[in-house]
């Protein structure tokens, strides 16, 4: 099957490579000519485990890229995988996906036969049907539901494990209104459905849009709840991880997302929780639980800095910040917990040295004034304190390196480091 994907970010590039891997002919459309050239040369334009191998295998062959929208005419289905960034009030800005939809509609005006346009971006319910569909109709001159069909297929890809998540999905959601759209999506995902034991959810377009928000809001709230419980455990000297292990045995709760610590970041949880809260308020509903989840998450970095202050005044002292990406396995620093930690250390006049195996260049753009180390050992050497922010394996393996510190104070926000004699160790929630 010939598939087109508009957008070559984390989602667009990943699904393009994964669709090529299962046998489809895929064309990726992007305005960035450098990204297009990279894909056609077999080079991954982003850091994502497993993605480089797929693009090396299929780039320039089964997977091609172009800046020209005309390529969609030779495909049966187009996925819109474009940014929907957050505005200051938390609502999403759909201008990018609207602009792409208009250009797509103009291109499809010259195509004969059916074409399915599928929203892959995360959008508030009714966006596909009430915003994007009318744009398609106006630009193409064709009524939606006849030759042009719209659908919603939310993604559930985690940065750092996106390829694996695509290839081993918990669920695949098809939001459609016409048989043509349902059959096209089923055909695209047929190779994956046949080789995995995944659940396929057929539902309406608005329901599919909401499923993505509900999914992320629930997981973000689960993390904040275990962090709140972990904070209480800390006050009583209780091991929060033993508590979490026990409650995770209850199948109503489940063991995943029960590691208390610094909280959630990245591009999805913060944006999606903020967007669904904003959408709720537009309907005059106050999302009290989601407000609480956000408040707990925002508080965790300050709790980490408060524990540091109990042990040492960091003014004019070297402090190592270990881990800069929002999670291991990615170079993405969007909403990383390292950002408020670094800002808090700057307010305390600390001499900051930071380490991350892949995200250093991205963080240097944000904080060019601090120092960066080439290894975790170099970061902690002669430091008066070390803060563990991201649990990269290279950081979790630190041990004797702490003996090179001026004062071995380790504040662990991820339970990555083993307690031992010779270091002053504080866990954030245990």
Structure write-up:
By secondary structure, the protein is of the alpha/beta class. The protein is 43% helix and 15% strand. The strands form two sheets. The chain has an eight-stranded mixed β-sheet with strand order 3-2-1-4-5-6-7-8, sandwiched between helices. Helix 1 crosses helix 3, helix 4 packs parallel to helix 5 and helix 11 packs across helix 12. The longest helix is centred in the middle third of the chain and has 32 residues.
Shape: elongated
The arrangement of helices and strands along the chain is: EHEHHEEHEHEHEHEHHHHEHEHEHEHEE
CA-CA gap between termini: 52 Å
* Percent of residues in beta strands: 5-15%
Uncertain regions spanning at least 5 consecutive residues:
none
Biggest β-sheet description = 8 strands, mixed
Estimated helix fraction: 40-55%
Query: Helix/strand/pairing class, anyone?
Result: alpha/beta
Strand order across the biggest sheet? 3-2-1-4-5-6-7-8
Question: Using only CA atoms, what is the Rg?
Answer: 23 Å
Number of helices: 15
- Overall average pLDDT: 97
Number of E strands? 14
Q: Which key phrases capture this entry?
A:
single chain; 430 residues; alpha/beta; six-stranded parallel beta sheet; 14 strands
In short:
The chain contains 15 helices and 14 strands.
